């Protein structure tokens, strides 16, 4: 008993600290307001609109008129997890990719540079398949805010842009072709300082409006239910492409896809949803 509860405690602590996954059911992305976080609210004023242009735009979902939905998968791996991967821990999920191909589900993969470096062959295959597009999820999967981002270590503001560019370089090295200029903040955590740091890259920060709760989930049915309950026309769903931290995602996808199709939904990539 003692051993079991200790293991549970260790797992819980590991989940909190190593949460390579993004978001929780109660927080669809974490926008940490800085003292000057008012650019969005003051947009009607020209002066503040000018200020807003100095921030990378943030996008959460598509138009609500059409029954389309974008499944997004974060390929998480933290820069210091290479040793664990070398020890046999699997941060990839080839079965999930196979299922998406078999079910013909266009998807957007938010890939970390660390993942692309660890799994170069898979990154290349994903990045050369027209069913998928590859967006940037940072190199290191460190937090882009000073604190309160699921225990992730924080990046200094002056290192944020380089971290994103390092991920893009890792994609190029792996031979990824289908890249799109979108970025997902690790943990979904951002503030005006991080949006300002990334603005020169010309990228759009992509959040989501539908949680799946697949991070560290053990019940695929519960994950599927959370998605099916949350999806609306134009929704963006956040899930994960890493067996280590999201072991039931592939099974959940097999439950979700036919049910949403039966409801009349069509699956699209983020770029298509953004254009619609
Ligand atoms: Zn992530």
TrEMBL record:
Residue spans of biased composition, Basic residues class: 44-54
Protein name: Polysaccharide deacetylase family protein
Signal sequence annotation: 1-21
PROSITE patterns to which the protein is assigned, alphabetical: NODB (PS51677), PROKAR_LIPOPROTEIN (PS51257)
Record bears the keyword Signal: yes
Region described as Disordered: 24-54
InterPro entries xrefs: Glyco_hydro/deAcase_b/a-brl, NODB_dom, Polysacc_deacetylase_ArnD
Record has Transcription as a keyword: no
Keyword field: Signal
Superkingdom of origin organism: Bacteria
Domain NodB homology: 67-268
Family matches, as Pfam families: Polysacc_deac_1 (PF01522)
Biased composition (Polar residues): 24-40
UniProt cross-references to Gene3D superfamilies, sorted A to Z: Glycoside hydrolase/deacetylase
GO MF annotation: an example: hydrolase activity, acting on carbon-nitrogen (but not peptide) bonds
Single biological process term from Gene Ontology: carbohydrate metabolic process
């Amino acid at each position: 008993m003692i051993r079991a509860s200790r293991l549970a405690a260790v797992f819980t602590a590991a989940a909190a600290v190593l949460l390579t996954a993004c978001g929780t059911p109660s927080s669809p992305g974490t926008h940490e307001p800085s003292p000057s976080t008012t650019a969005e609210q003051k947009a009607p004023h020209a002066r503040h609109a000018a200020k807003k242009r100095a921030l990378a735009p943030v996008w959460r979902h598509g138009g609500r008129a059409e029954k389309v939905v974008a499944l997004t998968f974060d390929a998480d791996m933290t820069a210091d997890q290479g040793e664990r991967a070398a020890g046999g821990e699997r941060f990839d999920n080839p079965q999930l990719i196979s299922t998406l191909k078999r079910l013909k589900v266009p998807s957007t993969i938010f890939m970390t540079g660390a993942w692309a470096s660890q799994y170069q062959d898979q990154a290349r295959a994903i990045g050369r398949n027209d069913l998928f597009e590859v967006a940037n999820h940072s190199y290191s999967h460190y937090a882009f805010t000073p604190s309160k981002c699921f225990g992730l270590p924080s990046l200094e503001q002056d290192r944020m842009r380089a971290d994103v560019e390092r991920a893009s370089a890792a994609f190029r090295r792996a031979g990824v072709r289908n890249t799109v200029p979108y970025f997902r903040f690790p943990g979904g955590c951002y503030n005006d300082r991080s949006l300002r740091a990334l603005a020169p890259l010309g990228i759009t920060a992509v959040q989501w409006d539908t949680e799946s709760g697949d991070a560290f989930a053990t019940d695929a049915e519960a994950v599927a239910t959370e998605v099916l309950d949350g999806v609306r026309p134009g929704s963006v769903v956040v899930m994960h492409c890493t067996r280590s931290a999201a072991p039931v995602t592939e099974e959940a996808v097999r439950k979700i896809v036919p049910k949403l199709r039966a409801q009349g939904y069509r699956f699209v990539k983020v770029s298509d949803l953004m254009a619609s």
